[in-house]
Amino acid sequence: MNIKSDLGQLLRGVMTEAKELAAAERCSLFLLDKHTGELVSKVFDGNEASKEIRIESGKGIAGYVAQTGKLLNIRNAYQHPLFYKGVDESTGFKTRNILCFPICDEEGVIGVAQLCNKLNGFHFDKCDEEVATAFSVYCGISIMHALVHKQVQKAEARYKLSQELLLYHMKVPDTEVNHALEAVKEPDREQDELYRTFPRFDFCPRDVKDHALSVQLAMRMFYDLNFVGSFKIHEYKLARFVLLVQKGYRDTPYHNWWHAFSVAHFAYSLMMNLRLIERGIITKMQGFSFLIAAFCHDLDHRGISNSYQTQTSSPLARLYSSEGSVNERHHLSQAICILNDSSSKILDGLSTTEFKECIDYLRELILATDLANHFRILPRLKKLRAEYLTEGSNQRLLLSLMITCCDLNDQIKSWKTVQHVAHLVYAEFFAEGDLEKQMGLRPNAMMDRKKACIPMLQIEFLTTVIRPTFEILVQIFPETGSFLDTIDSNREQWERVRNRAAQQGNGSEAGGNGASEPCNGCNATAECCDFTCYTQVND
Q1: Which CATH superfamily is domain 3-165 in?
Q2: Does the pLDDT value for residue 4 go beyond 50?
Q3: How far apart are the C-alpha atoms of 423 and 457, rounded to whole Å?
Q4: Which residue numbers are catalytic?
Q5: Residues 352-363: pLDDT tens digits?
Q6: For the whole prediction, is pTM greater than 0.85?
Q7: Could you tell me which residues are annotated as the binding site for AMP?
Q8: Same topology for domains 3-165 and 171-382, yes or no?
Q9: What is d(CA 312, CA 90) in angstroms, rounded to the nearest whole number?
């Protein structure tokens, strides 16, 4: 059963009834987001809103009604100071009059309904106001019951999900924990060079390869940043935490432990090399939360996108789709599960206030790894300046920027790493595209192995996502300027791959090697060959 659709169907029915009772031309319904205080569009012009619209508390007609709880009957919309005519100008619709009223439950306002343009009169009258007031009570009861039903369904979905996870994940044996602790206390002298270069930006975590060594290095990050002493972390619990996080990642091509290890290493390198905590740019608690979030940000990723989860009404979508960022909310949930386990509770040494603060930062940081959220705050990120980082919400914006840079850090590594990671990413993309085709859906071009051209897609990705994001980081921290040089160098490599393939007649510039069998060099199908077989000379 699709929870989101069930609620949407109810709301559409409720507003259709309201529109008919009041003889209105259009109707809209907004529900109050109790976490942000914003009004969120649920029904627009009688249909379930296809694109989420958010209205700040107190802003506009709907915001005013939500804040005051009072009905507004506006006879001439264009003469009212709260009316915003920009929507009319963009849609061509002419709003004449408005009847806007609150929807309440026993605790207060839970939403706002808005009716536009009286059909059989000049404006809405007192009778319409009485109908709206009575209808508001009915609407509030209906929505309240629907939301309770939704919570029950969510609980069922959580139960099924937890059962699935219990079957999938293995427990961490004490021998593994003890081995990790011994290795950290008595490091292998043969690894001296690795330990020496480990904090550097140009260190490549993907070159480590040995799982046991990666666990030791992960633990070392907490020691090097003095989090173990500052937050009274029990060493045994730290080892078990890292091992549980490692086992919490599935064996997907890209979103696996090695991606998490790489992301966490870049977070560690940022804090070490830029001395973010020592310079007061971020607090120690923010740094601690930042590192935990980097390790946990993709926990239990199944190798499929938010879009696919929503389209298929997966258990995760049924649980989180109404809140957005389906995958990221699941990763956060898994992180909190591990942090709440008595054997891996590395937040044990925190006070109640500190614990809540840490979880709050974790939530913000993990949700920030959804690129949709990154693009939403991008205009604000571009305004960040080094001299104002500790003012207002700038610290939180900086953390969001840095976790995104961490998530994308493979693109500032060597060409060999960049090329290897592209294979991993597109292996996941193409597998998802295949699943969509099996369901009769049309996959996005980048996920269609018969249409995608990896060099072209990578050039676009580096140009439109990677460089603009790292440009902001470099603007704040000029000492990271070499990142942009590496990005430009890797983009030039992809351009060479694309051009060389075109020159050698192995398909068009847009992709395809002209053959009917998979390419022996890169094992890609003919239609999606990424020309890796022509790049070996550059390794």
Answers
A1: GAF domain (3.30.450.40)
A2: no
A3: 12
A4: 255
A5: 999 999 999 999
A6: no
A7: 255-259, 298, 407, 458
A8: no
A9: 33
